């Protein structure tokens, strides 16, 4: 083993930036180039001077997420962070710096902090939630139906999950929109990420204060009263986790599913009696464009080997969920053979797998179904390959989906 390979992350300063796997038209081509050069684990650049491993292989990713003894979720085990080499104002901070919530904890602490999330989700009245989501979707569609055109991201896909999640925590609509602006900046991992995280926390501190004075039937009150959360900071950070994860992933899932059903002939035909339907589209997005394309992070607790490459204690590993889903060892190139297959890693795996899969699917399914049934003759107003993406190394959410449709009682614009 050469010195270069032993010190790969430290010695390579011009590695492929991680964002080149997300902010591109063909992410699998980008993952494929990394796979061809490095194998199933590849060194990448998170930001200048900050490198990490990107886990591309399905088997290798499962090894990482199912082994807390070797790979920790706690960023205090990240060598570059621990040594002060990641600037405190880094855009990576909101996604990779330590927080007192379940996302950044291992073992007993993780189970303690995850308990309120699991119980809160299990205790949701799904019939009530379904009615709220559908009413929200109908109100939003009615708000722009008379215009004959809309942006199904800004006017719809980005609004439905935020209003839903905000409603679950007892936040009014106006604060839901404030949360959305903060979360867009947070997930960009750009210069405004840290101020956005502070704004998010300020809003949540306000609703916590209000619910202490006037309890309600919402998740904020449930978190305030949960014995597993020991102080206000843990409560606030648990809310941050649930709201940010629920918003970003669901927005992306809705937007990508709408894009697929409007642009792909296999699904667009469904609106005119085609073979493939909404649930097929939902599952295909989870396979090919999952809500989190790259998920941060795990940190090696010991020197070890993964995918034939040496991992050093303190190295950061990014989970390439989209890459692992397309691993040629476990996935075919024939989309017709994958219909009904839900063995993807879109929700990760192991003890940190997403707890909100059922709720996320409910929100997404209702949102897409409502838009497609209430907007008549809806079509993309730009070529599908002209759809741009919000800049982020973690997600591939369309920035805009401009559409035209027939106005009620009239013609399309």
From TrEMBL:
CDD domains: CYP_unk (cd20623). One of its GO terms (molecular function) is iron ion binding. PANTHER family: CYTOCHROME P450 YJIB-RELATED, P450, PUTATIVE (EUROFUNG)-RELATED. Belongs to the cytochrome P450 family. This is Cytochrome. It comes from Actinophytocola xinjiangensis. The lineage of its organism: Bacteria, Bacillati, Actinomycetota, Actinomycetes, Pseudonocardiales.
């Amino acid at each position: 083993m050469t010195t270069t390979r032993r010190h790969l992350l430290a010695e390579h300063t011009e590695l492929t930036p991680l964002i080149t796997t997300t902010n591109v038209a063909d992410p699998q081509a980008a993952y494929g180039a990394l796979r061809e050069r490095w194998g199933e684990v590849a060194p990448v650049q998170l930001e200048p001077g900050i490198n990490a491993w990107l886990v591309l292989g399905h088997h290798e990713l499962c090894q990482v997420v199912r082994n807390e003894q070797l790979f920790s979720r706690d960023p205090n085990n990240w060598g570059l962070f621990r040594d002060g080499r990641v600037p405190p104002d880094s855009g990576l901070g909101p996604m990779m710096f330590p927080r007192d919530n379940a996302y950044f904890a291992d073992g007993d602490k993780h189970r303690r902090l995850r308990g309120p999330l699991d119980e809160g989700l299990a205790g949701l009245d799904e019939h009530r939630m379904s009615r709220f989501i559908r009413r929200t979707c109908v109100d939003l569609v009615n708000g722009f139906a008379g215009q004959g055109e809309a942006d199904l991201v800004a006017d719809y896909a980005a609004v439905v999950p935020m209003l839903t999640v905000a409603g679950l925590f007892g936040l009014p609509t106006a604060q839901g929109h404030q949360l959305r602006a903060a979360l867009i900046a947070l997930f960009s991992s750009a210069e405004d990420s840290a101020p956005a995280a502070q704004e998010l926390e300020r809003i949540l501190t306000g609703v916590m204060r209000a619910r202490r004075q006037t309890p309600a039937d919402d998740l904020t009150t449930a978190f305030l009263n949960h014995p597993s959360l020991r102080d206000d900071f843990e409560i606030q950070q648990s809310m941050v986790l649930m709201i940010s994860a629920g918003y970003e992933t669901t927005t992306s899932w809705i937007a990508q599913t709408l894009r697929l059903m409007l642009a792909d002939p296999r699904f667009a035909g469904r609106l005119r009696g085609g073979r493939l339907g909404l649930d097929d589209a939902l599952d295909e997005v989870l396979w090919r464009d999952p809500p989190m394309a790259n998920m941060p992070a795990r940190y090696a607790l010991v020197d070890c080997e993964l995918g034939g490459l040496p991992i050093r204690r303190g190295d950061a590993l990014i989970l390439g969920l989209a890459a692992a889903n397309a691993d040629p060892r476990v996935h075919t190139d024939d989309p017709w053979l994958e219909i009904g297959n839900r063995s993807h890693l879109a929700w990760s795996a192991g003890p940190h797998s997403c707890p909100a899969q059922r709720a996320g699917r409910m929100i997404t399914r209702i949102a897409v179904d409502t838009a497609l049934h209430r907007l008549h003759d809806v079509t993309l107003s730009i070529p599908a390959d002209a759809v741009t993406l919000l800049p982020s190394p973690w997600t591939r959410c369309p920035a805009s989906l401009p559409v035209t449709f027939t106005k009620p009682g009239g013609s399309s614009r």
